[in-house]
């Protein structure tokens, strides 16, 4: 059984009348990438801030590398790297100055010149942080989190604002770190990112865990197919349901947007296409694909917009 580098057990946190965390429980296996997913306001950042020792839980237990993140913060500091969602860097300092300073605090840091080159930071010169673009600041924050060769790295929305090239560079470094035995825990709203690099996924909503496991466990070892149909004019769901077998579920995602799940395949797709043609229903999309992490996420947390 894989050892856990991070353990969260029945964590609770309230802010006045608002419950941010409600007996939240999950683990992060050592030397793996764990993606913590959830809608806005689900409690992701609060949970990570407690794990980082920046906040205190009302109740529950957190173990970071087997230690308490607050009472053992001195012992954990050289072993844990943290990338905040925003801030944490002196606006007047340059990328080179910050990276050199932080690396000097560790016994055996990564080579800062090589790391800067890898993440596209070497060309920034002495530009202060406040003048860096959002993407440059995120890449610098990531570099600062890993330069000390930590055993555990906690990343809050690490690739927000990055272009595709920078995102791929970060993903490559994350993968290399885990191969070297580092544990990565990250939050992200990019479900493609979680599917691409996560070994373990935790989905939380309303401050509690609603699903946890590997991608095959959440999606299915042999993912089911999903048929998506978009029509120019709305169609009664009952009419579409009458076209397909009872084991197939038809859901109206929005007006004119329908999703078929269950025993879905090319034959059923052809049947639906024929029905649309026979009933003069114009379609803008009729596509068959495998069920994804996004489907699981939306099924568990709903499709309504969050504030």
What's this, in brief?
By secondary structure, this protein is an alpha/beta fold.
Note down, in words, how this protein is organized.
- β6, α6 and β7 form a beta-alpha-beta unit.
- The chain has 2 domains: 4-219, P-loop containing nucleotide triphosphate hydrolases (Rossmann fold), CATH 3.40.50; 225-290, Alpha-Beta Plaits (2-Layer Sandwich).
- The longest helix has 16 residues, at 164-179.
- The chain has helices spanning 44-51, 73-76, 95-103, 112-118, 134-146, 164-179, 191-197, 215-219, 237-241, 266-278, 293-301, and strands spanning 4-15, 18-29, 33-37, 59-64, 80-83, 152-156, 183-187, 200-205, 208-213, 225-231, 249-254, 257-261, 283-290.
- By secondary structure, the chain is α/β, with parallel strands linked by helices.
Q: Which structural class best describes the helix and strand composition?
A: alpha/beta
Say what the CATH topology of the largest domain is. Rossmann fold
Distance between the termini: 39 Å
By DSSP (H or I, 4+ residues per run), the number of helices equals: 11
Number of strands: 13
Sequence stretches where pLDDT stays below 50 over 5 or more residues: none
**The CATH C-level class name of the largest domain:** Alpha Beta
Element order, helices and strands? Answer: EEEHEHEHHHEHEHEEHEHEEHEH
